[in-house]
Design brief:
Layout lengths: L1 E5 L3 H12 L3 E5 L3 H11 L2 E2 L11 E4 L6 H7 L11 E4 L19 H8 L4 E4 L7 H4 L6 E7 L2 H13 L2 E7 L4 H16 L19
Parallel strand pairs: 1-2, 1-4, 2-3, 4-5, 5-6, 7-8
Antiparallel strand pairs: 6-7
The structure holds NADP nicotinamide-adenine-dinucleotide phosphate.
InterPro entries: NAD(P)-bd_dom_sf, P5C_Rdtase_cat_N, STEAP_metalloreductase
Keywords: Oxidoreductase
Protein name: NADP oxidoreductase
């Protein structure tokens, strides 16, 4: 697939590298041309400019610090509809590291803000829980990637991209579950910064429970 990545930082470069290795065609763009070139060189992606990246891709990954979301989506023309009809993956965490409290209004997910800024795009919340190194140096056991989104085809596409980099997709439901998924990241981040393994804070389920 042709995947466009908005952002040139740690997670953007790791996912660009992993998807390039999996045989996908990656375009990357950020606000700094120098950092865009560096991320492209490191990952094997094409360096693009924000205003025209949407012309080159079928799927978009939004991968910036949450305070930069409005700026980068605006620079990519999303409010004018450039991402309409495309899956838009949102792995962002609007939390203060070390504290883990969400910075969005109660009941509201950052994914909803992303959807408002990108009319017509099919937002899928995914890939926000694991550190970037999971995708460049995968753990021996595949990880489950919880995700949600309203458009079934977009969710299916993102699920296949997750499989391509060694994850197992688990779809929780529509985008109304995004706040819950984002709160889980806050929970994980809080424990991790308290030197507690978050996996030790959830029950191990030896046998799957019957369907309700
Ligand atoms: N790193 C991880 O392991 C990880 C895991 C899960 C989720 N995430 C989430 O993924 C997102 C990116 O994290 P990261 O670790 O890759 O961060 P990072 O390395 O600090 O990179 C942040 C990116 O955001 C860009 N940015 C910040 N403000 C911007 C603005 N106003 N306009 C345009 N671009 C702006 C930066 O551009 P400049 O370089 O030009 O400043 C850079 O490309 C975050 O939302 C984070 O919560 C990260």
């Amino acid at each position: 697939m042709r995947i466009g990545i908005l952002g040139t930082g740690t997670l953007a470069t790791a996912l660009a590298t992993a998807w390039t290795r999996a045989g996908h065609d990656i375009s990357i763009a950020g606000r700094s041309p120098q950092r865009t070139d560096a991320a492209a060189n490191m990952s094997g992606a094409h360096a693009r400019q924000l205003p025209d990246i949407a012309d080159h891709v079928d799927v978009v990954l939004l991968c910036v610090h949450w305070e930069g979301i409005t700026d980068i989506l605006t620079a990519a023309g999303a409010p004018a509809g450039t991402l309409a009809g495309k899956p838009l993956i949102d792995p962002t965490n609007a939390v203060d590291h070390g504290i883990g409290v969400l910075r969005t209004d109660p009941g509201r997910a950052i994914a909803h803000h992303v959807a408002d800024l990108a009319p017509g795009a099919h937002v899928v919340k995914a890939l926000h829980l694991f550190p970037s190194t999971q995708w460049t140096t995968p753990a021996p056991t595949p990880v489950t990637v919880a995700m949600c989104g309203d458009d079934p085809e977009a969710v299916e596409i993102v699920g296949s991209l997750v499989r391509d980099i060694g994850g197992i997709p688990a779809v929780l439901g529509g985008l109304d579950r995004a706040r819950q998924l984002e709160e889980v990241a806050g929970f994980v981040i809080t424990l991790a910064f308290a030197a507690v393994d978050p996996q030790s804070a959830i029950p191990a389920v030896a046998q799957p429970l019957p369907q309700p």
